[in-house]
Design goal:
The complex is a heterodimer of chains A (about 675) and B (about 290).
Chain A (H helix, E strand, L loop, with lengths): L1 H22 L6 H28 L3 E9 L2 E7 L1 H25 L9 H20 L3 H19 L6 H32 L4 H5 L5 H19 L8 H7 L2 H26 L5 H24 L3 H28 L3 H36 L10 H4 L1 H14 L6 H14 L7 H32 L7 H4 L6 H19 L1 H8 L1 H6 L27 H19 L7 E4 L17 H11 L5 E10 L2 E9 L1 H22 L6 H19 L1
Antiparallel strand pairs in A: 1-2, 4-5
Chain B lengths: L1 H7 L9 H10 L3 E4 L4 H19 L16 H21 L3 H32 L4 H10 L6 H17 L18 H4 L5 H26 L10 H28 L8 H22 L4
The chains are: A mainly alpha (about 675), B mainly alpha (about 290).
């Protein structure tokens, strides 16, 4: 345990040191690349070490810091849940630390402030690590706000672009509304528990009504940070606006910190759970998954697409969490543990593959200065390594065996299929519907990522700067390779991984998953071998053997020869790159089938005589439905209040006097 | 099946082994690859073939107990088919012709709509048998004697519709079309030739057989071998051949009677499948509780 504490504190210390070192980048721009970002790599290694040691050690340990308010010292705690998320943050941070030096090099000649970028990301990391370690509500909130504020400065990094500023403002606003909800949620617990330490909150005697209120506030606050629909509006704006390695951290890790908060609050602090909460979580998760993937399918901006896909994956995660809550509320602790493990595994998997995809998008952006899919094409030839790693990421995120995304979705399906054990008929028919939504989501995600990969990396380049893309630097390649290797490893060896992660439900719920790993590392049997079994290593081996045999059998002798020819052009002469299927065209059938869900503005415009232009703008219908009324109402109220501000000093003095009189009247 | 179809269309038709002959011929033909095709284009047929073969290997055909059935359950089979489809669609987009992208886009739409319907049908079975292992489901069906359950009928309907859509048969897609704009599956194979094409075609045929075996052995499991002895397997072989012939004949009739529908009618077709799946599930929950 001592070693884990040393590593964990070293991680936070190193993150703060990196932030300090980056301040020097205001003078010497290369300082960020040469000192601060390698420090990030070390932060990652330290955090991952601390997390792994905690998970493997299996103990729980509290310490009290000599910091904080006199009557409210700050406390830290290391347990399996914290260890799990520390490992996840560490792995992605290490990869980003290796990747980023090559990426930020392009900013050194720019006008953007590198010191702000480095210091912001250092504080951001320190904040996230502290949130995971915090063992009292006050430190948790301080670290949470540090994380939110620091990431605001990262989102607004390209502050000369109006879109970035708008995104950052929206992010700041929603982060604070969410933070307020979390604070109120803690407040409910603290009022009953008479203290802010987690131990006191855990012991709080709550009536079901107050517990439900606290849960609703937590779902609102953490759900807002996690980007659940309809609280998602900031996410697809803010994630693409930040530099790519920060997008990877925000999507891969910060959303997971929100998930951590939700799990800590609901499964650990609230005590007894009710199945109705699970239904609410399940519903929110299903809606997010489906809406996220459909919006992702229609986006043409690569980074925005990935951000929408994060909404989808958070949805999948919350489906699993909802299942866990339902099973726990109905008294099936073992199944609750299964669903919770599925959620944790998906959190880790999403961190790996979404981090990988954002880094890949960053590599493309770095090489071609292009985020628009319609301009890309044929990048596999120019950037073969990024192409390979991106393919692995796409396969993983599409939930295809034998990679890691499939494992967590499979576990979620298995948990959903155990709904026959529940007593209530409503739940028994509701859960499979959620499973069908999950199936639709994963199939649409596969379609979406075929589209991304097919348009960006295959085919022929659709613009000149993409045709001349430079290959990525070695560090960028290595950072992506690390994450891709993580995806493959987690996909091929899920059983040992689950054995380790099962320590979390063991500590939180009192039951682990002994049956899942009962049959050795080769077999994954979440409930019982005759109910469902999956063997990723055997599957991968069989697949490789089948492919190798087919290739060997067909490539003997004179058949080896392959002749090159022109593709089929219907006899009309050579094809141009503009004749390829475009990203918009690829998504058109989906757009048409699910038309009522989108706010699509499409039409043909006459630009100049004889020049037609096809225009498609995909809007977020929920924005118009839910957010726009708020915005107009706030604007209207502000305008009415603004009438007070006439610029006349005498009138201001009059208002001050009147306020004073009213206050005096109230006091007496 | 083509033979039955030809008969129904007043033709004599090619012999039954003609598809195999076609494959053999394609295997010895030279491969032509388009300029500008990436390595992925040449690797994809092997992935597609391998994944489909593996999926088929996990579906009980002759006997209930299969060595391969334990490492993949029905969800994994669906996943393997999705993997095959993923690479098929990527390969289609690789050369950069319009047809490939069009085929990929349409195929993935249909697959995306078919997947929930298929899983709903499967879940109905899995909830009854309390297992997603195909072997366990089939064994449960055999033990359960002849109980005509409403949920099964709905699930059967859903699975049949999904199978038609997924394997690209009329009325969703036409495997024999020669007009590029009406193609879905064939449009994706347009650039393939020689052994690559043979592998892709073979994979498509395996997929058809897979769905047929799935439907037959789950809903009509009689005759399947419960032990791995030679006589039992022999009976299983005869039984499955008879059943396959019956199903093939039925499919041929359907293909002859119906016309191919417009692409944008396909979602309605698949929604019907989803509805069947949902109804099956609900009738299971409402009518068959406590079994």
């Amino acid at each position: 345990m001592i070693a884990a504490w040393v590593a964990a504190t070293a991680a936070i210390g190193l993150a703060l040191a990196a932030a300090l070192a980056a301040l020097g980048a205001a003078r010497i721009p290369s300082l960020l690349r040469r000192l601060a970002l390698p420090l990030f790599g070390l932060v990652g290694v330290a955090a991952a070490t601390a997390g792994t040691l905690t998970l493997l050690g299996g103990g729980v340990d509290d310490i009290q810091l000599p910091l904080g308010l006199p009557w409210l010292p700050w406390r830290l705690r290391l347990d399996a849940l914290a260890g799990c998320f520390l490992t996840l943050i560490g792995l992605l941070t290490a990869a980003v630390g290796i990747y980023a030096p090559g990426y930020v090099r392009g900013f050194e000649q720019g006008r953007d402030s590198l010191a702000m970028l480095g210091a912001g990301s250092g504080l951001f990391l320190a904040g996230m690590l502290t949130v995971v370690l915090a063992a009292d509500a006050m430190l948790f909130m301080v670290a949470w706000e540090l994380m939110s504020l620091a990431s605001y400065f990262l989102v607004v990094f390209h502050h000369d672009q109006p879109a970035s500023r708008r995104a950052a403002f929206l992010y700041l606003l929603m982060a604070h509304v969410g933070g307020l909800a979390i604070l109120l949620g803690f407040g409910v617990l603290a009022a009953f528990g008479h203290g802010f330490e987690f131990a006191a909150l855990r012991a709080a005697p709550l009536t079901p009504g107050w517990a439900t209120l606290a849960f609703a506030l937590a779902l609102l606050g953490f759900g807002m940070k996690a980007g659940l629909v309809p609280l998602h509006a900031w996410l697809p704006e803010a994630h693409p606006a930040a530099p790519s390695h920060i997008s990877a951290l925000m999507s891969g890790v910060m959303l997971k910190v929100a998930v951590y908060g939700f799990i800590r609050f609901t499964f650990d602090l609230l005590g007894e759970v009710h199945w109705q909460w699970g239904v609410a979580t399940l519903a929110l998760g299903s809606v997010s998954a489906l809406y996220g993937v459909l919006m992702a399918l229609l986006q043409n901006d690569l980074k925005r697409l990935l951000a929408w896909s994060s909404v989808e994956n958070m949805g999948i995660l919350f489906i699993a969490l909802g299942l866990a809550l339902i099973f726990l509320g109905e008294g099936h602790a073992g199944l609750g543990a299964l669903a919770l493990v599925a959620a944790l595994l998906h959190a880790g998997n999403h961190a790996l593959f979404k981090g990988l995809l954002f880094l890949g998008a960053g590599a493309i952006l770095h090489s071609t200065h292009e985020r628009d899919l319609e301009q890309m094409g044929g990048l596999l030839r120019r950037m073969p390594w990024t192409g390979l790693f991106f393919l692995i990421g796409c396969l993983a995120i599409a939930g295809l065996p034998p990679l890691n995304g499939f494992v967590s979705e499979w576990l979620t399906f298995q948990a959903a299929l155990q709904s026959w054990q529940l007593d209530s008929g409503v739940l028994r028919s509701l859960i499979p519907v959620a499973a069908a939504v999950l199936a639709l989501t994963s199939a649409l995600a596969a379609a979406g990522f075929v589209r991304v990969y097919g348009i960006a990396f295959l085919g022929r380049a659709r613009s000149r700067h993409v045709r001349r893309a430079r290959p990525e630097s070695r560090g960028m390649r290595l950072g992506q390779g690390l994450l891709a290797a993580g995806c493959v490893a987690a996909g091929l060896l899920p059983t040992p991984l689950i054995g380790v992660v099962a320590a979390v439900p063991e500590q939180l719920l009192g039951t682990g998953l002994p049956q899942a790993t009962a049959r050795g590392w080769l077999w994954l049997t979440p409930i019982a071998p005759e109910v469902a079994s999956y063997s990723a290593p055997a599957l991968a081996l069989a697949l490789a053997v089948a492919m190798a045999v087919a290739a060997w059998a067909l490539r003997r002798g004179a058949l080896r020869r392959v002749r090159r020819g022109d593709p089929w052009d219907c006899g009309f002469g050579p094809l141009t790159t503009r004749m390829q299927y475009s990203a918009t065209a690829f998504a058109q059938p989906v757009r048409r089938v699910f038309a009522p869900l989108f706010a699509v503005d499409a039409g043909v415009e006459l630009e100049a005589p004889g020049r037609l232009r096809y225009r498609v703008v995909i809007g977020d219908r929920l924005w118009k439905l839910l957010y726009a009324p708020f915005a107009t109402a706030t604007d209207g109220a502000a305008r009415r209040v603004a009438r007070l501000q006439s610029g006349n000093v005498r009138r201001y003095l009059g208002w001050t006097l009147a306020t004073l009189l009213v206050l005096l009247w109230i006091i007496t | 099946m083509r033979k039955v179809k030809a008969r129904l269309q007043n033709r004599r038709g090619a012999p039954v082994v003609q598809p195999l002959r076609d494959l053999r011929k394609l295997f010895v033909k030279e491969v032509r690859v388009a300029h500008g095709a990436s390595p992925l284009f040449r690797a994809a047929p092997y992935v597609v073939f391998g994944a489909t073969l593996l999926a088929a290997a996990s579906v009980p055909l002759l006997g209930v107990t299969l060595p391969t059935a334990t490492f993949a359950d029905i969800v994994v089979v669906a996943g393997l088919l999705a993997l095959a489809r993923f690479f098929l669609a990527l390969a289609a987009m690789d050369v950069g012709t319009a047809f490939g992208g069009m085929g990929a886009s349409r195929e993935l739409l249909i697959a995306a709509l078919a997947e929930p319907a298929m899983l709903m049908a499967v879940f109905t079975l899995a909830m009854t048998a309390h297992s997603t292992n195909l072997a366990s489901i089939v064994a449960y069906q055999l033990d359960d004697a002849l109980a005509l359950r409403p949920s099964y009928l709905f699930a059967l309907g859903a699975l049949c519709l999904v199978a038609i859509a997924e394997t690209g048969r009329i009325p969703v897609d036409n495997p024999a079309t020669h007009l590029e704009l009406t193609m879905i599956h064939e449009a994706m194979l347009l650039e393939y030739s020689g052994r690559h094409l043979a592998l892709m075609e073979w994979a498509a045929q395996i997929k058809l057989a897979l769905y047929a075996a799935l439907i037959l052995n789950i809903f009509l499991p009689w005759g399947i071998a419960e032990t791995l002895g030679a006589p039992a397997l022999g009976i299983g072989l005869v039984a499955i051949l008879l059943k396959l012939a019956g199903l093939g004949g039925a499919l041929a009739v359907v293909e002859t009677v119906l016309a191919k529908m417009r692409l944008f009618r396909a979602p309605a077709f698949l929604n019907l499948a989803l509805l069947f799946g949902l109804l099956g599930l609900l009738s299971h929950v409402m009518l068959e509780v406590g079994r």
